[in-house]
Fold Glycoside hydrolase family 3 protein.
Amino acid sequence: MVVKETNKVDPVWDDLDSTLGQLFMMGFDGTTVTPQIKTLIEKHHLGSILLTAKNLKSAEDTTKLVYELQKIAHDAGHPVPLAIGVDQENGGVNSLFDEIYIRQYPSAMGLAATGSTDLAYEVAKATAQEIAACGINWIFGPCLDVLTNARNQPLGVRTSGDDPQEVSAFGVAFMKGYKEAGLVTLGKHFPSYGNLEFLGSALDVPIITESLEQLSLSALIPFRNAIKHGLDSMMVGGCAMSSADLNIMHACLSDQVVDGLLRNDLKFEGVVVSECLEMEALSHNIGVGGGTVMAVNAGCDIVLLCRSFSVQQEAIAGLKLGIENSMISKDRIRQSLRRVLNMKSKCTSWDKALNPPGINFLSTLQPSHTALSTKAYNSSITVVRDKNRLLPLSSIIEAEEELLLLTPLVKPLAASAASRALSDSVNAGSPEPAVWERSASVMSGERVFRELGRSLARQRSGRVLHTSYTANGLRPVHENLINRASAIIVLTADANRNLYQQGFTKHVSMICNMQYSAGGEKREKPLVVVACSSPYDFAMDTSIGTYICTYDFTETALNSLVKVLYGELSPSGALPGTISQSQKLHTSRQHWLVEAFNDERDAHALDTLIKTVIEASPPSQRSEISSATSNSFLLHHPEVLESHFVVRNSSTQALYGFCSTYFFKTTGTGVIGALFVDPARRKLSIGHSLHNRAIRTLLQREGIKRFQLGSRLPSIFLGIPTGHSSERKRLRSWFANMGWNTALSRPVCSMVARNLLTWAPPDGMAKSLQSAGAEFDLVYGWEHSGPVLDHIKTSNRQGLAEVYKLALTDPTACGIIRAKRPEDQAIVGTVVLYSMHSHLAEFVPAIKDLNEMVGGISSPVISPAVGEYSTLLQGLILLGMRQLKQQGCNACVLDYMDGDGNFDGLSTMGFDVLHNFEEVSCDAATWTMVPPA
């Protein structure tokens, strides 16, 4: 039933109920046809169905289920077959799994790691052939999101990476493969889920903060190219959009996004599908009936409702009411109908729908698809670093020695909103866990990791010890096994979102680095870290010497990993996106003479430059350097080498630009602590020239291991300032062009608690701290330095040792608050407490900025082995606030806090964010300088 050139449709569609049914896609619970879905098809003429992991047991059962659904529609008199869609992205997101007939392939990012769009095309085609054989005609892919912020994003390896051109190339390759197998395609998640900001609860809608112009320059590129190559349909997300030019609660309900951006600007003429209107934030804020009307009026052709029969009926009733009340025109309905019918004509007919190829065809595909799966996984495994040449393991571990495997307890990625709901129901005890294990993402993490342990054991004659780890951290059982084993493998899965994995791995690394032989010589124990989902876990952390990425933790991926570990396979994968590209400096248009800063000559001119930069900022954008002076940048610290640079007018002595650098010998970190240019002389390459000179100087430091943007000492700029959206984008873009991988930035901030003299701790906090099982005390002076400095070695963050040494040598104005285990008095947490008269306060402009009696709390270090991180941190800060209050301070500054943390606890204690920053680090060994033109 195809669209006629006259833009009219067959008279059969004069029946409103039949027409409206084509404008919905719905799901249902169960692996067989339910009365509810039967009613929706027969009575409400439902035109499209979404099948998820909860519906699909096996290829054979799926074929039967799809046939039954189509037969019901046929017998009910539907003019055209049902469009039946699934998420089948591979990697960790497969709705349909069958050990015999359905092959497993790498995730989108895993395929990007192969570097081959041809291989991506073949995998996409094979995937589509398999599900098409079961009668499915619509694949929910490709995923076209660009990870413009790689950290802490839920999409992870479901997207090809952070480079819009690479995401675009692989997205088009996937799309062409799906089409070749006869399926229609769906791009997602427009206008991009690649840099969502999450506010907390399920009722808070994730937000896109980029402006339309910023989206157009990056995130929209893959969508635009997919449209040019014939994308059939597009899913528009339910996220909010908030920037200077947009304020939208839900993208899929906005005509600005659907009719404006997608239809008019990007010229998309295919079918637009809304995000599931059952998502809690949307249904709670608007209601499903009203949301359906808004979605259709915005330009959506199909409204998605995943599972609840009562909600689905509410949506149908809402749409009918919208038409009756003339809120939606008949022309608008017919427009969507034409698009839906046109899409269906490309992928299905009654003959095709009632005669799927089925199991017999799948049997013929199996041999070639098995070979393709093995080839794809073997080509994706990436050895990012192997500094000490630990691979293959057979060359460093004897047959009689033991190998230890440490794996996290994780659940597979949910394929969709619907299967995520299933995951929640499993946690509540229904359905049977065994069903979940087999139906989504192949196997649960625990089961697949057990199989990995067996595979490792089968490949060697020595023993393989295997245990898991959790958010409880490193336990005595782990320590005993580490001491026994001759080599250790630690697996992580999205450690950037599961921070306990990061802490655990770093703790294991520290133990391995502190091993000694029987003769007393230091002997580093071999450690291999494997990121089996997001490659960003330790991509930039060179303290992890051997680092491998598999991009998913399916059994097939881990089989290829075993081959790499034992030298049976030479890995050829490369990290996708900008992270793997050589960091290059763009050649400046002009090369300014950069001179070393001379305190005597330049101090007054620097004070003038700082004042000029502050005055040029809008009143709403209070500068982070508002209380800084030229002295604020001069540390004069024995363990920090500092070099500062200026571009100046030698005739007038005026400074046009300034850059400060510090080299912290204890961690081998070279830091750019500040870089600013006279606002009247920006875009003349002064900043480029200063930056290049700074990097060249830091590269020459003996023992340099990494570079960092942002310094905790002095803490004028803790990183790239991010307090204002437009300025943040401009600065991130500038530093990215200079070679910094801003996609891997780490949020940090300074905070302040005011009115300390009338402050009291929250009710119950003191009591809850007692349950943390720690004793707290406050010590002053260098005699306490030994245990404190040993404790802070559990963190390799820049500037820690220097801050603590400053505090320990200034006992009249600084102290250290310690948290200790009662049983052995071992230190498990510390913070620095300092007054506004301390030497340390000179390097914290926020202290002067408050213009009242103020004290500071700095540099918390909590042992990685401690599970009660938040409780201990609150305890240390609470004691600090009490002490400052006793000293007569009316405000307390936290001058360096981890922005990834949950600030609920700190805000409850009275703290507000003062300044936000993004700290960026990179490996000095991989930095390449571009010679001047």
Notes: The chain has four domains: 29-363, 381-580, 595-746, 749-918. The longest strand covers residues 911-923. The chain is about 35% helix and 20% strand. The chain has a mean pLDDT of 87.
